[in-house]
Amino acid sequence: MSSQIEKIQELIAKREKARIGGGEKAIEKQHAKGKFTARERIAMLLDEGSFEEMDMFVEHRCTNFGMDKKHYLGDGVVTGSGTISGRLVYVFAQDFTVSAGSLSEMLAAKICKVMDMAMKVGAPVIGLNDSGGARLQEGINALAGYAEIFQRNILASGVIPQISAIMGPCAGGAVYSPALTDFTLMCEGTSYMFLTGPGPVKAVLGEVVTQEQLGGATVHATKSGVTHFTASNEEEAIALIKQLFSYIPQNNLEKTPLAECNDPINRAEDFLNEIIPENPNMPYDMYQVIAGIVDNGEFLEVQPSYAKNLIIGFARFNGQTVGIVANQPKQLAGVLDSNSSRKGARFVRFCDAFNIPIVTLVDVPGFLPGTAQEYNAVILHGAKLLYAYGEATVPKVTVTLRKSYGGSHIVMSCKQLRGDLNYAWPSAEIAVMGASGAASVLYAKEAKALKEEGKVEEAKAFIKEKEDEYTNLFANPYNAARYGYIDDVIEPRNTRFRVIRALAQLENKKLTNPAKKHGNIPL
User: Fold this and answer.
1) What confidence tens digit (pLDDT) does each residue in 211-224 have?
2) Which of 9, 306, 479, 492 has its CA 20 to 30 A from that of 132?
3) Integer CA distances (angstroms), 468 to 24, 114, 435, 465, in order
4) What predicted TM-score, i.e. pTM, was given to this entire model?
5) What is Dmax (Cα atoms) for the chain?
6) Three-class SS of residue 458?
């Protein structure tokens, strides 16, 4: 046998060794937990045969605590590039079978390399996280590795899309990388995220809590808003990543992928003409409106279980990706609060960064009042949403369905925040406040005088008369249209057609913000 053949066989043997990570027993343990291995996850995510692996033969350089005797090819992470539906993407998948996927200096270097490559060629990065945290044996070198990754997350933000899937543990400093990326997905029952684990929490605070209670998928989907999506298993998680990926562009210089559309552009939905209840205090379901106007009724909601009074997500109009932001009258009457404002602001900024037009569906009676909101800085959080809309230069189409009152009217992509085309349904009420509240304030003295004279019923009739008068004058779309703040009042059944035509009109929109290092968004 020639030396060349021997070298080739050595290469093949090394590749086989690298592919089994921590070994067959470790793989069996991973499967026993209902989890796939790093390579299996990548195979599920990417187009068959498209994966080009990098740094398969990297090993750690640590000699502390007997680590010089423990070496695995690849050092706990699988990295490389491939395609999803033919589109280039860079991936890294932490391998829990190797030292619990703990982050070492060289493991971090592998991740940094694919992130650098992604930035260089303008392709998204998808990280599949399953790690026990920093490799304790490496001390400061592991911490430096995390910092190197975080710095790249920051520089890549707004340049290339970044998606994080939490497929297992993600604790301590490791949580910051997913938090810096655009979208985070967690697997129910097998993943968790927290800065400080149950042990230290109990020791310091005396609080007994499980990993699931402290940082499970449900907690972060409903209470903290840290995760944008949850999946019941890993197959569902991978499918969800692919679905999300189909809506977003490769980078901030490209337009979104255009999908084939077989849904008629001029499809009218008669039920929209009657969806607004006669009673202005009665709710209706905004999801029905969204399904009625977008292509084939398909809508990928983001953060569906968090701050439900505001709906955000991706849809298409005539094949073009748009970001939908909509108040939900079925939840807290559709009011804005601290959580929904933060939720909406970050989504608007993502859409603006990646050239995704924004369609806003408005039915908002105001901001949620009370000490809880004021103490929680609702002023600052509301300002975030206002800032995001005002800063955005992508096409913005706004449709006011019913209520649009006071400060919340301004915040929801009004004309003065550079809304490009602002439409309203005939049922729209655009005013400083509702007729009832306005009449009570404007005519308080007259009503009080009547009551003091014992004319209680007359006072009620007087206020009712003034409410009707206010409604006729202000609580309708025509006063706003009179000043050009509403571009047109449209028939609800034709909303799909009008939005599509608006987006077509705005396809080549050019708008830039003043030159500056960056703004100082209220955080």
Assistant:
1) 999 999 999 999 99
2) 306
3) 76, 64, 7, 5
4) 0.93
5) 115
6) helix
